[in-house]
Amino acid sequence: MPIDDSIKTAKDGIALVGEIIKAAGDNPDVKEAGGNLGKTALTITKTINNALLPLAAVNFAFDKARIYFSEKFQQDLSQKASAIPPEQIIEPKASIAGPALQGLAFTHEEANLKDMYLSLLATAMDGRVAAEAHPAFVEIIKQLNSEEADLIRGILRSPSVIAIAEIRLELDKNRWDTLSKHMLNFQNSETKIPVENPRCPAMVDNWIRLGLVEVDYTKLLFAAESYAWVDKRPEVIRLRQSHENETQKIGFQNGIIVRTALGIQFAKAVGLA
């Protein structure tokens, strides 16, 4: 799609928001809401002019991205920014808006990741908390998949330390092999039945690599019942059936997983907190 056409499409979207504001009429309540929307729309307009249009040659070359930005983006971002007092709305830094919009172009069909990008943009537009929106957070989102973005939500929301365990095959008193790292107590949200996720160890390693969490197998939660779930996990039952015999037994190394300061700030900036 030619860049000129892309710019026209984006400006048509801006004009549409303007028409919504004009529809406020004489109703005082509607006019007040329209005023708030007008301030938000103005900032969105600046965002598009300053950050989106320079990316048009890349992002608008993809039909799905062009349709999203021209038809849905303004509404999505307006909803995210609707709670910001008009006087606190600022133009987001280009170092955040540009890469975030580029990431959004490729992930707008993945709800968890799209929501993170939109929330980060809204945080960057809020003068009260804009400092929480770090440019590195765009790169963190880019290195998460949709499944991870969903699963890490509970960990980054938890103010408490969370139990984690490593499954080991005890060969003798002083020797063992690690069979599975980073076992968490994942459950079906409806039935509460434990669910095994074979990708969990790699995901936790990725969260550690990104600096969102720390895992320590030299520390334990004080309450013994904190690890009562470990022995009942499907991973443990499966590995017992395939590895245990008269001389080899399944054992565990319990530990903790805790969000880092970076993880806490990231959660606040991308709407996970």
DSSP strand count: 4
**N-end to C-end Cα span:** 39 Å
Please indicate the percent range of residues in DSSP E strands (runs of 2 or more). Answer: 5-15%
The dominant shape is elongated
Order of helices and strands: HHHHHHHHHEEHEHEH
* Count of helix runs: 12
Q: In what order do the strands lie side by side in the largest sheet?
A: 2-1-4-3
Structural class: alpha+beta
Radius of gyration: 24 Å
**Level of helix content?**
40-55%
Number of domains: 2
Mean pLDDT: 82
Largest sheet: 4 strands, antiparallel
Low-confidence stretches: 9-34
Question: Can you give a write-up of this model?
Answer:
The protein has 273 residues and is an alpha+beta fold. The protein folds into two domains: 3-142, no CATH class; 153-265, Translation Initiation Factor IF3. It is 53% helix and 13% strand. The chain is built from twelve helices and four strands, in the order αααααααααββαβαβα. The protein has helices at residues 3-22, 28-52, 56-59, 63-71, 73-81, 94-107, 111-125, 136-142, 146-157, 200-209, 234-243, 261-269, and strands spanning 162-172, 175-183, 213-216, 249-259. Strands 2-1-4-3 form a four-stranded antiparallel beta sheet. Helix 5 crosses helix 7 (111-125), helix 7 runs antiparallel to helix 8 and helix 7 packs across helix 9. The two termini are 39 Å apart. The model is unreliable at 9-34 (pLDDT under 50).
